[in-house]
Structure formats: structure tokens, C-alpha cells
Design goal:
By secondary structure, this protein is of the alpha+beta class. It folds into two domains: about 100 residues, Arc Repressor Mutant, subunit A; about 110 residues, no CATH class. The protein contains ten helices and five strands. Strands 1-3-2 form a three-stranded mixed sheet. Strands 4-5 form a two-stranded antiparallel ribbon. β2 and β3 form a beta hairpin. The relative contact order is 0.17.
Length: about 270
């Protein structure tokens, strides 16, 4: 049975915004969102396109930023995907001359359309023939970026969550969302469940539409948690087969496995997606 998505946040609640006048510009006159918007694209491009589609106006969507928030793809993969989306008609990146108080300067405008568009449509948009509310603002001088930090080693639970977008692009999670859901996924794996079995359970019978995938995955991770396996039982007496260990003992066992995998235990529900 399909379940309602209970999350109340966007899929990337802390996604960085671009400088004023830059970032994602939502193209006008798009068709309503459906489950099949990007089925014509390769799996990687569909996953990244579905993620960009849910970003707000003005969000940073360059390859470097996407690689930081999408744990399943690096900068080169994101750069190639953006190039493919341009060729497929979902993306327009165009440098233009913009007048500012300091004079004229080159800026880059990036339009994204859920509905694929031919080149002629994009040209009409740039001429102003297609209705658009975009009004670019002068961009301040860019700030230097800090030196990149080495990527931490990820657990099996984290990697399984990061790969959900490969099964269904609508389930693409950000790095922050994977970290928030990681303890729940680790409990699954501590109960004799493989990453493949967990993925199958999380992706079976998905509802439509999926607007907040992290909230849906949290609900399914909690509701479909597998039972305690037989090896977690202990005998009571010769005439009884045994009973399940108390939940606190199972939880301590899961904590030991998390510690061995280098996952810190987190309290509370954290981000709802």
C-alpha cells in the first residue's frame, strides 16, 4: 500500500544558494511534475535532473556544488551530466553581458526546465518571447573557496542510501539526508539484512508523486524494520524454545556494529528530508 510522505522539508534543506543573479532559474510554462519526467534520460542524468528539479530558484547547481551534496557522484560525473542535460533540452547555460553600477560585466545565466525544450524555444526565451519573471541582479565579487577536505570513509548503510537514486531518480538523497538516515539503515544491516534486501524493501510500491524522498525513506525504514533474527534469542528452559532479547540488548548490539563501522549514534529524528 502506498503511504503518504510525512516529511515537511525540501530534499536539500541546507543546499547552498548562488550569488544574486546566478544559480538556478526556473524556466516558465512547464508541465506539472510527474513520475516520468526524466525516464528518457540515462540513470545518472535522470537522478541528477530529478534532484535539480526540486531545488528552489537561485540555488547553486554547478558541478562542484552538486558533487558536494550528492554523495553518489563526483565533480566529473556531475559536469558530464549537466552537459548531457543541456543537449537533451532541460538546461540552458548562457553567458550574457549585464549592466551594473560599476559598468558592464559578463555573467552566466542557468535555466532549468523539467519539460525538455528544443533550441528554438530557448532562443525565444532569451528574446523575451516566452513569459518569464527572471530579473537578474548584480553579482558581488566571488569569495575564495576554502581548501577541499578529504572525504570521510562511508559505511555500508550510508552507501546503500546514497545509491537509492540509481534505482529510482525520485529517491536521490543529499549527503546530509544520507547521514541523518544512516543510523536507521545501520539497524537494518545489523539484523541480518543485506543492502540489496533493504533497497528492495524501501523501493517497492512507491507512491506518486514523491515530493520529499527523505521523509518517505525515514517512514519506511522505521515501519518496515525487519524482525529480530533467531540468533538474537536465548533459551529459557528445556520445555521452552526461547524468547527474543530485550530491545535494549538488540540496540546495544546495533550500537557495537555501528561503532565498528565508524558510525556515531545520533539522537532524535534530525532532518525530516
Amino acid at each position: 500500500m502506498a503511504v503518504a510522505n510525512s516529511s515537511t522539508a525540501l530534499p536539500t534543506p541546507t543546499h547552498p544558494m548562488a550569488n544574486p543573479g546566478y544559480g538556478k532559474r526556473v524556466a516558465p510554462d512547464q508541465a506539472p511534475r510527474t513520475a516520468n519526467d526524466f525516464v528518457h534520460l540515462p540513470r545518472r542524468e535522470a537522478s541528477i535532473a530529478a534532484f535539480i528539479d526540486q531545488l528552489p530558484e537561485g540555488a547553486a547547481m554547478d558541478a562542484k556544488t552538486l558533487a558536494k551534496v550528492l554523495p553518489d557522484y563526483g565533480q566529473q560525473a556531475c559536469r558530464s551530466a549537466l552537459r548531457y542535460l543541456r543537449e537533451a533540452g532541460h538546461l540552458l547555460v548562457r553567458p550574457v553581458v549585464e549592466a551594473t553600477e560599476a559598468g558592464k560585466r559578463w555573467v552566466t545565466r542557468t535555466f532549468f526546465s523539467r519539460t525538455a525544450r528544443p533550441t528554438s524555444w530557448w532562443e525565444r526565451l532569451l528574446r523575451g518571447d516566452v513569459p518569464s519573471a527572471d530579473r537578474p541582479e548584480p553579482e558581488p565579487a566571488p569569495q575564495p573557496h576554502p581548501a577541499p577536505q578529504p572525504e570521510p570513509r562511508r559505511s555500508r548503510a550510508y552507501r546503500a542510501l546514497a545509491s537509492l537514486g540509481r534505482v529510482d531518480p525520485r529517491l536521490t538523497l543529499s549527503a546530509a539526508e544520507c547521514a541523518e538516515l544512516e543510523p536507521l539503515a545501520a539497524r537494518w544491516l545489523a539484523l541480518d539484512t543485506t543492502p540489496e534486501q533493504m533497497t528492495a524493501a524501501l523501493t517497492a510500491g512507491l507512491p506518486h508523486p514523491i515530493n520529499r524522498p527523505a521523509g518517505l525513506m525515514r517512514e519506511r525504514l522505521e515501519r518496515k524494520m525487519p524482525p529480530v533474527p533467531a540468533r538474537f534469542t536465548r533459551p529459557l528452559s528445556p520445555d521452552r524454545t526461547g524468547e527474543a532479547l530485550p530491545p535494549d540488548e538488540v540496540a546495544r548490539h546495533a550500537d557495537r556494529l555501528r561503532a565498528a563501522a565508524g558510525i556515531a549514534r545520533r539522537g532524535g529524528r534530525g532532518c525530516d528530508g
